[in-house]
Structure formats: C-alpha cells, structure tokens
Amino acid sequence: MKKRDIKALLRKKFWRLTLLRKLAFNRRSYLYLTGWVESLKRGCPCDAEGVEVPWMNYPVVNFLKERLHKHLHLFEYGSGYSTAFYAQLVRDVISLEYNQAWLQRVADSAPANVKLLFKEKDVNGAYCRAIHDTGQVFDVVVVDGRDRVNCIKQSAECLSETGVIILDDSLRTRYSEAFEYLRLKGFRHLNIEGLKPAGYSPDRTTIFYRDNNCLGL
Fold first, then answer.
1. Is the pLDDT of residue 198 over 90?
2. Closest by alpha carbon to 77, among 99, 58, 60, 45?
3. Does residue 67 contact residue 75 with C-beta atoms inside 8 Å?
4. For 29, phi and psi rounded to 5 degrees?
C-alpha cells in the first residue's frame, strides 16, 4: 500500500472515531439528550431518563408532550409503548390491537384510563371500522397499526369538530391516498421529521388538522 493510501485510510478512520465519540459517547449530544442511546441500551423506545415513549421520531414526541392535554379523548390504532404515554397526557385512551399476545402485554401495565380492543387484522374490514364500534367521537386519532389508509378514512368520520389525525411512518408512498382523501375533506397537514428511538434514518409523522383544532395548529 502506498504512503498516500495509508494516510487516506488513517484520516477516514480518525474521522469515523471522532464522529462516534461526539455523537455516541458525548452526553451532551443529540443522541444522548433525546434518549436515542438509552433506547438502544434498553431495547425499547424511551427518553433520556428511561421513560417509555411512542416509537415515533423524537421531535413529534416532544410536540405531543407539549400539545396534548387532559380534556382530550384519544383513539389509537396500534397498541404499545405509546398507549401509557398518551394515557398520561389525555383524558382517556381507546387502543386497538390485532396481536392478542402483544395486547395482553400492554394490558398488564395499562393505566386505568385505557380501554383496549382486539380485532383480527384485515383490509377494509372490521379492523379499520372498530372506531365506529365505540360510539364516540375523538379529539385525536393516532394511526400506527395495520391498513392505515382505510383507518384514516374511517377516522375522519369519528372526529370532533376540533379533532386531528396523526399518521406515523408517513414517508411511505403507499399512504399518499390518505393525504389526498383528507385534503379533499378540508384538512391541512404538518410533517414532523427526525430520528426514531434507536433508528438510523429520518422518519416522518404527519398531523392532519383543520382550523381551530385541539393542538393549536
């Protein structure tokens, strides 16, 4: 190997080590302060103190911490670490799940203001329509489970006048139909991007809202 090639290789290794030290081992770095490093250690999504959070990007998690409040009724497609997180911030949560074993795990630690529902996963069937079975309207609907486009279509019929819909993983092109559907119903949208806990690439969550909405957008 030529001398200049060795120098180039050493520079490359030095740059990588410097980057690793600044991001992964510096407790003032973004990865530490958000909880990204802690999530990697624990194997579950959490903040820097180890408190579990939704498996959404950190900027939208922080936004929801600031904007959700105890007067809101929330419906969630897809139970998980998010369920207890929302329950701490809103009046009550109804959470739908298709995996019976996972539902039981969530139930074991669910707060008193959480109601859990089970439906088999399907496409444009009982799962996406489960929100109608509640007989309620909701201020916030979080779509983070299966059959998301159809879940959004059904959710739009069950929103309060100030209600919003939150779609996670909205960078996926197969959800584009949902954007157009809600646009035609008078919704605008806000994209929030960032790293998910222990994630390695940018992720996006989209909030669909109208005037005078419950999140103050």
1. no
2. 99
3. no
4. -80, 165
Q: Which helix (H) or strand (E) holds 9?
A: helix 3-24
Rounded to whole angstroms, the Cα distance separating 60 from 195 reads 10
**DSSP-derived secondary structure for 135-180:** T--EEEEEE-SSSHHHHHHHHGGGEEEEEEEEEESTT-GGGHHHHH
Location of structure tokens 């605008």: 188
Give dist(CA 68, CA 171) in Å, integer.
Answer: 23
Which pair of structure tokens corresponds to residue 168?
């996670």
39 Cβ contact partners less than 8 Å away, ≥ 6 residues apart: 45, 46, 197, 198
Structure tokens at 6: 């060795």
Given a cut of 70, whether residue 18 has pLDDT beyond it is no
The phi and psi torsions of 129 (rounded to 5 degrees) equal -90, 0
Average pLDDT, the chain: 89
Amino acid letter, 75: F
Domains belonging to the chain, first-starting first, are 52-209 (3.40.50.150)
Residues in the chain: 217
Residue with tokens 């806000």: 190
